[in-house]
């Protein structure tokens, strides 16, 4: 079954993503609807599109089965709703909408018409994320106790007039950007509850440039999220750390490619760790004799055979991994379009739940700042 793809929005990222989507077997680009800016014209040249359509023309096109929406967030809901009402499947850039009520309306329309609707939340397709999920599930490093994600992002390509800074268009940092990481933690830990949030505005324009929140998972695990858009491009960086009873895991980049594990383990746990990261480098920092192996933590005995540091993912570039994940998420969604019994890794429910958490974090942050 061939899938005819129509694209709404011809910006630079749309071009980047569609080049990956068209590598999925049986997907064919049919049409583009976009404003006639240089980026859209470059998109058309890349794929040999003779004419850029209006939105209504694309939605009426009989060969368009599925629509990919790559426009600013405030357009996602009206464009996705129009596409669903036209009988088209919808794959949308994040966030799915600007609020939960809009997301629920889209999901209701999709269910009523047996159509796809999902947001491009690709973190859970990362093999690094799979390894961490298994590490948590098997308790290789003991119980998870705490974690944080720190996103020191560049604003070099975001001038003051860019829609990103306009909350009416972007939804704010938690909604526009934070949904990726709320979904990643939900993939690992299930649903969480936002217990506190704050934001910081950049003078003199009052632009929201920093947000942070704390989410409680599984009753006892507190995780902190920080997003700041204030760095020069050369200093853009991200770090995610998970602290366990027997060590810690640090992931690097907003799409993690590299992992560092620092831990005190016995022989069996060391074997499990290496199995989860089969091509990693394992450095043994210290080996303990029989009389020194027994120690205590959290008022329990711990068998400490060796202190290790493991490095995984060296040599994998962020660009390669990003392309890989775009192909993976799109192939998963297309598989469901072809066969409704296919179980997707990301569904409309996860798209909605990540948005709901982002909206709650945003509400608490605005409340704590007085509006």
Structure, described:
The chain has 371 residues and is an alpha/beta fold. The chain is built from eleven helices and 16 strands. Strands 7-8-9-6-10-11-12-16-13 form a nine-stranded mixed β-sheet, with helices on one face. A five-stranded parallel β-sheet has the order 2-1-3-4-5, with helices on both faces. A two-stranded antiparallel ribbon has the order 14-15.
Mean pLDDT: 95
* Helical coverage, percent range: 25-40%
Q: Which segments are poorly predicted (pLDDT under 50) over 5 or more consecutive residues?
A: none
Q: What is the gyration radius calculated from CA atoms? A: 22 Å
Strand order of the largest sheet: 7-8-9-6-10-11-12-16-13
User: Using DSSP, what is the number of strands?
Assistant: 16
* CATH topology tier name of the domain at 3-121: Rossmann fold
Total helical segments: 11
Order of helices and strands: EHEHHEHEHEHEHHEEEEEEHEEEEHH
Say which CATH homologous superfamily of the domain at 3-121 is assigned. Answer: NAD(P)-binding Rossmann-like Domain
Terminus-to-terminus distance = 50 Å
**CATH secondary-structure class of the domain at 3-121:** Alpha Beta
Q: Biggest sheet, in brief?
A: 9 strands, mixed
SS content category: alpha/beta
CATH architecture of the domain at 3-121: 3-Layer(aba) Sandwich
